[in-house]
Amino acid sequence: MSKDQRPHKSLDVWKYAMQLVVRIYRTTKRFPRSEEFGLSSQMRRAAVSIPSNIAEGLARRTEREKLQYLSICQGSLSELDTQNDISVKLEYADVTVHDEIATEILTVQKLLNGLMRSIRS
């Protein structure tokens, strides 16, 4: 498959979402082992779904389908943001890590909103 058939890989929103996945995996690796199938797993699934849904959405043909998948990304970002808050309240992550992740989430949200505006116009 040529690069032009994978337009998501050239988008900043996808690249930042991929960085967020790496950040979440590295952060949750330090969570207690008892959270392996709990909060850690939920955060990882939410994070992975973001670039995955960007890729899948952009592979769709219609504007409506594209926006549906990108809307799912917005939900996953909100879910991840809440889970990030929970991780600091449970003292699994320190405030600095929490704030860095929150900033990355906000960056992806802004880029995603821009992409959605672009698709609508």
What does this structure look like?
There is one protein chain. The protein is mainly α and 121 residues long. The protein has one domain: 23S rRNA-intervening sequence (de novo design (two linked rop proteins)). It is 74% helix and 0% strand. The protein has 4 helices and no strands. Helix 1 runs antiparallel to helix 2 and helix 3 runs antiparallel to helix 4. The longest helix has 27 residues. 29% of the residues are buried. The model has no long low-confidence stretch (mean pLDDT 94).
Q: What secondary-structure arrangement, pairings included, does this model have?
A:
Elements: H1 12-28, H2 39-58, H3 63-89, H4 95-120
What is the fourth-level CATH superfamily?
Answer: 23S rRNA-intervening sequence
Secondary-structure element pattern, one letter each = HHHH
Helix content: over 70%
Name the structural class. mainly alpha
- Stretches where pLDDT is under 50 for at least 5 consecutive residues are none
Which CATH architecture would you pick?
Up-down Bundle
Overall spatial form: elongated
* Sheet with the most strands, sense and barrel status: none
As for the CATH topology, it is: de novo design (two linked rop proteins)
Count of alpha and pi helical runs: 4
Beta fraction: under 5%
Number of domains: 1
On the 0 to 100 scale, the average pLDDT is: 94
Give the termini separation: 28 Å
